[in-house]
Amino acid sequence: MSTMTASQRVHAALKGEPVDRVPFCFWHHFKPQGSGTRMAELTHEFFIEKFHLDIVKIMPDLPYPPPEDTMVEAVQLRFLPRLDLDTPMFREQINCIRTLRGRLGHDYPLILTLFSPLTYALRFMGKKKAIEEARKHPDPFEEGLGTIAANLRKLMEAAIEAGASGIFFSCMGATNADFTPEEYLRYGHLYDIDALKGAKEGWLNIVHVHADPSQSGDQIYFDLFTSYPVSVISWSDRLTGPSLSEAMTMTDKCLMAGLWERGPLTHGGETELENEILSAVSQTKGRRLILANGCSVPDDTPEEWLHTARRLVDNLP
User: Fold this and answer.
1) 130-148 pLDDT per residue, tens
2) Among 73, 130, 181, 197, which has the highest number of CB atoms less than 10 A from its own CB?
3) Is 80 exceeded by the pLDDT of residue 13?
4) pLDDT tens digits for range 203-257
5) What average pLDDT does range 291-302 have in this prediction?
6) Are strands 232-235 and 56-58 parallel, antiparallel or unpaired?
7) For every residue of the chain, which 3-state class applies, written as one string?
8) What are phi and psi of 100, to 5 degrees?
9) Which of 41, 129, 131 has the alpha carbon at shortest distance from 92?
10) Against a cut of 0.85, is the pTM above it?
11) What CA–CA distance (Å, rounded) separates 311 from 277?
12) What is the sign, positive or negative, of the torsion defined by CA atoms of 258, 261, 264, 270?
């Protein structure tokens, strides 16, 4: 098979068609100091100049504005503000997208990472407190989720218009260590779908189902996400089920997984890393797969192993 462009490779993977090799991506965080221009520079350097990855992923390092006051009660969520696109961090994210799109050309896969409304609430209040408050005072908690969802929907629309191929939508709380499935449908799913309406024009929307590596036995509710209006499902398959082979039977969406973010990709060795890559390809037969870490690799990961992974993928049989 002739060599594909990154865009051709990712499009083929989404459709389950043959690829010259599996699309490949990994990521960590940056320190752009509030600047969209600086974020674009760091992102381009890492994803294109250093590692030539198939997807450029703008990390959530120009963050959604947190509340000024410490959040300790659900009622406080009722007063979260409606945000416009002139909100500084929103403006800088759009600036970052436009800058990168100008450098990448019109078709290179480019995604913006955003968290779900529930994830922001968990971060604002702290997970344990937020879960308690959602159960005790659901009405104001949900009112706050609705505000966040409306703000995200507006930002997503602007991001796609500015040149993003889609949104990488990271969702916390959908695990047996956090909410029940019924609770996640109420506090997560409903507002996830509302927010994702803003990304409907994107062709590379990805939902990431987050498991906490510090929580023993943390199992995700994978099946709750198979109907989301996205092309790809991402999760840490080396940390929590389902396996890639199991997930292939649960959804017809493309899968984004295969590499353990705290495993060989971050500390080697080469044989272990190669085995992990080959296992992911074997489980999927190289179809409907974007090979990636489940969550961000540590920022101080030795680049030796990232370069090794890149070379191993290029040399896949």
Assistant:
1) 999 999 999 999 999 999 9
2) 130
3) yes
4) 999 999 999 887 777 899 999 999 999 999 999 999 998 999 999 999 999 999 9
5) 96
6) unpaired
7) CCCCCHHHHHHHHHHCCCCCCCCEECCCCCCCCCCHHHHHHHHHHHHHHHCCCCCEEECCCCCCCCCCCCCCCHHHHHHCCCCCCCCHHHHHHHHHHHHHHHHHCCCCCEEEEEECHHHHHHHHHCHHHHHHHHHHCHHHHHHHHHHHHHHHHHHHHHHHHHCCCEEEEEECCCECCCCCHHHHHHHHHHHHHHHHHHHCCCCCCEEEECCCCCCCCCCECHHHHCCCCCCEEEECCCCCCCCHHHHHHHCCCEEEEEECCCCHHHHCCHHHHHHHHHHHHHHHCCCCEEEEECCCCCCCCCHHHHHHHHHHHHCCC
8) -65, -40
9) 41
10) yes
11) 11
12) positive
Domains delineated in the chain: 6-314 (3.20.20.210)
Question: One-letter amino acid identity for 110?
Answer: L
> What amino acid occupies position 213?
P
Tokens of 238: 């080396």
Written as six digits, the tokens of 18 are 């043959």
